[in-house]
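Any chance you could type out some protein's one-letter sequence along with its backbone structure tokens so I can compare the two?
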Amino acid sequence: MDWNLMIRCSVKQGFFTRALQIYSSMVRSGFHGSEFTFPFVLKACAKLSSLGDVKKLHSHTLLTGFQSHVFVQTALIDAYSKCRCLHSARLVFDEMPLRSPVSWNSIISAHCRDFHIDQSFAILSRMQLLGLELSPTTFLGFLPVCSLPQGLSIHCNVTKLGLDDDLPLANSIMIMYIRLSQIDGALSIFDSLLQKSIVSWTVILGGYLSSGEVTKVFTVFNQMRRQLVVPDSVVFVNLLSCCKLSGNLLLSMSVHSLLLRSGFHQKDPIDNLVTAMYVECKDLVSARRVFDDADEKSVFLWTSMISGYAQLGHPREALHLFNMMLRTASKPNEPTLAAVLSACAEMGSLRTGEEIEQYIFLNDLGSDLRVQTSLIHMFCKCGSIKKAQAVFGRTPRKDLAVWSSMINGYAMHGMGKEALNLFHQMQNEEGIEPDSVVFTSVLLACSHSGMVEDGLKHFRSMEKEFGVEPSIEHYSCLVDLLGRAGYVELAMRTIEKMPAQVQARVSAPVLSACYKHQNLELGEMAAEKLFKLKKARSSGNFVLMNNMYTSMGKWREAEKSRRLIDGKGLVKVPGWSQIEIDGVV
């Protein structure tokens, strides 16, 4: 029986546990390994990250007399380093009587893997002083972890040694430049390559994608097709991600058509990406068609489709799909539950939300912060602030999203003091700095509770103390804060001091405040600003202006605004409410 052959075949086929079992059977049969056995078995241990087995094999090499064999020692260095035991790897290296170039490369990679990059450079310098031959493999370990100056030094060394024509090394240097946001550096290498592999093209596509340059991604892809390079699944992953980023439906459909012709459409995660892409393009029909056509639905595919329904205002369909998922072999994970809880919040279905909370506890999924954040948001939206407080209270390590969700919950319930107290607690006790989303919730809380001075103070501190630049949402909250409190003139003066591009977009709260406080003059000024925006020419704003005229006896103006509504073909959207009775919304 050829034990070495069986072990080698198992390792090459990826059956690492089986390789260890064969080695154990060999030892029990009275045979011991050779210099050809141990490297393969140690590779299996490294793949399994089994430090205990590496130590056992190390002792076996000592007992059988192979501890000084260069192949075995090099394999030990590699196995120890991949099991995150740099100290043992270094001990083996230091005790080697003879070191091959592979041994030196292995110890360099070991230090890089453990982020001891300076020691890796020191070892590289020793190799150069000893006149050892440096190969492309010598430099590969540096590239995933080096800084930009270190990377430039490595690139310089590679060029001096004439190794820049090695394609795998060139691809790795390009990846290094892209990781460090130096796309031009990667592009210069790419353009200098006489031969380009599919990996080379994929690296450049991924680089442009990571910097959000959609047009350049497709320029490179078209160049690739002109050179008759056949795209692989990784290329399509980049293209689909790019389409998702752009939200361009026509472009997405074109890529999907090409994908279908290539035959990669049924591979995971391709079907998941196609579904998510169509969701981002707001085409739920196409997303659902892809979902239904998938032979095997992973939890990621289910989550993408459920999230799509929840995000695009179809909470009932999201919950229906979730119930279908529970009847399959796929089990929901934390992102799935976060999406479903978002659908419950949208529907205002407290009963369903409580059932999902129970499912979370029964399946031990409650420790995930995304789930906790979604639970808080759901309970707040469904009117159960006490249950939201209970979830918040039992969350041990709260991140910014958890704090933000609870502050926003207090804001929507008009509990301004509680929101501000929590806001200050987050900063003073936990040392967490607020972001723009938290400040939106704080300003909203101040607006709904009539806390004008607090709102103005936090709006000023937002940029001065925390460096958060005010967005449209912040300006709208500020105007709403002043308008609700009756400071309509101050609200208008505030709008006039805002950047010109946001003035019209934040005038809607002033129009509402003018109607409430019967200030026709400022109402007409706000309406004039508001109607400069095409998006703001909704029936609701015209109806509000019409009601203001009517309430103040301005019948002629009211009739004129009514004719405007009819002339523009606008239809007043009827208001609607929903309540939950016996678990049914």
Summary: The two ends are 70 Å apart (CA to CA).
